[in-house]
């Protein structure tokens, strides 16, 4: 469990600690405090530490402090705290502050009079309390998601005590890393290390993202499944698409996919919503949409396509059904596909399709004629409309839409 650096600086008793550089990265997570006893720290930290430099056991001149800043940034420490005053480090050299600011490493000054034992006790206690609160929260959410609770009333009471507003309408999003390529392309020990690192980075990213979304809650179920409980706000899909872009960077060799449930009116419906989100996630992992997200309410026939193990068959079906309608030599190569999509959405009504696309009726008629000419099919043929609707659904979800 971890706390953001800015949360630590707000702990009662730590008001004397002053940020001297790296203000923009105070959201970095602190896993534990570490007091640097050696000349360098690169060999002694793994990332996420709040490193304290006292100068008691080793001289800390400007050159050494600059080296610590470089090492801390390279290894990924959460921040660097330098104790000043007393008979050791009198002040932080300006060049050290300047370099930390350039790197974005949070550099904090602590007066020597503020005892280290007090500071580390406060931070350690806060981390333990955070871990306990997180376990309680995950326990409550896990019970509601699985339906494994002795009493729904008690579960709601516990949620209210933890200030979890779970009785409002929410969407559930299930996500996980797809680690097949990680374990296929790396030796077992290295693969496991990469996997655990990616899992932790994913958890940190989700927590940071949820802090920017009013009412958002994240939890991790046993295994590798992460769950987001999100208010049904406007442009939720757009926000999740941006989140997916962040997660892809973290995932590296491992892919990451999301499945979203229908709207759950309150926590009594979380079990069903989780089942929907998992089904949508399975489809997302199989079809690999460009957005990384599948919405259960839009799956329909895609749940049947999920049973086709050869993805080439699906791609071939889409290509045979729609491929001729992509006019690569034109300014708007996907115009016919958008027209076909609008016609299917309007049940073949050309006037409604024209209004939806903001086009003149004559333009729609011309495009309808071209669709039939290029496809060799009639828009009046119910079989073609069915095939086209399925192919369009797949096309919208795949990387093809990224080429528009």
UniProtKB/TrEMBL annotation:
Name by which UniProt lists this protein: PucR family transcriptional regulator ligand-binding domain-containing protein
Pfam family, one: PucR
Boundaries of every Purine catabolism PurC-like domain copy: 7-126
Entries under Gene3D superfamilies matching the protein: PucR C-terminal helix-turn-helix domain
Domain annotation CdaR GGDEF-like: ranges: 154-283
Family: Belongs to the CdaR family.
PucR C-terminal helix-turn-helix domain mapped to chain residues: 336-394
Lineage of the species this protein comes from: Bacteria, Pseudomonadati, Pseudomonadota, Gammaproteobacteria, Pseudomonadales
């Amino acid at each position: 469990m971890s706390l953001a650096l800015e949360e630590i600086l707000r702990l009662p008793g730590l008001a004397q600690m002053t940020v001297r550089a790296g203000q923009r990265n105070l959201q970095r997570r602190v896993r534990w405090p570490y007091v640097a006893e050696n000349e360098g720290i690169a060999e002694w930290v793994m990332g996420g530490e709040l490193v304290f430099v006292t100068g008691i056991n080793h001289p800390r001149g400007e050159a050494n402090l600059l080296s610590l800043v470089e090492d801390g940034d390279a290894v990924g420490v959460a921040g660097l705290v330098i104790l000043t005053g007393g008979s050791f480090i009198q002040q932080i050299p300006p060049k050290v502050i300047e370099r930390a600011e350039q790197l974005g490493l949070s550099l904090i000054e602590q007066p020597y009079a503020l005892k280290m034992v007090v500071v580390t006790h406060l931070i350690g206690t806060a981390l333990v309390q955070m871990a306990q609160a997180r376990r309680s929260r995950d326990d409550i959410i896990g019970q509601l998601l699985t339906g494994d609770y002795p009493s729904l009333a008690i579960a709601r009471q516990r949620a209210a005590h933890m200030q979890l507003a779970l009785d409002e309408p929410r969407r559930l999003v299930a996500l996980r890393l797809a680690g097949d390529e990680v374990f296929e392309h790396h030796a077992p020990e290295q693969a496991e290390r990469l996997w655990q690192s990616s899992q932790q980075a994913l958890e940190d990213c989700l927590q940071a993202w949820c802090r920017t979304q009013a009412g958002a809650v994240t939890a991790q179920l046993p295994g590798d499944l992460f769950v987001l409980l999100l208010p049904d706000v406007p442009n939720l899909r757009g926000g999740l698409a941006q989140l997916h872009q962040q997660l892809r960077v973290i995932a590296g060799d491992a892919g990451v996919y999301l499945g979203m449930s229908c709207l759950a009116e309150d926590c009594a419906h979380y079990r069903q919503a989780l089942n929907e989100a998992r089904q949508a996630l399975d489809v997302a992992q199989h079809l690999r949409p460009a957005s990384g997200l599948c919405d259960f309410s839009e799956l329909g026939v895609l749940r049947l396509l999920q049973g086709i193990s050869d993805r080439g068959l699906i791609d071939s079906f889409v290509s045979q059904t729609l491929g001729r309608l992509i006019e690569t030599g034109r300014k708007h190569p996907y115009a016919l596909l958008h027209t076909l999509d609008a016609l299917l959405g309007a049940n073949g009504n050309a006037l409604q399709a024209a209004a939806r696309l903001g086009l003149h009726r004559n333009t729609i008629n011309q495009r309808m004629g071209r669709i039939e000419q290029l496809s060799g099919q009639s828009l009046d043929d119910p079989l073609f409309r069915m095939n086209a609707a399925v192919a369009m659904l797949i096309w919208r979800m795949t990387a093809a839409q990224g080429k528009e």
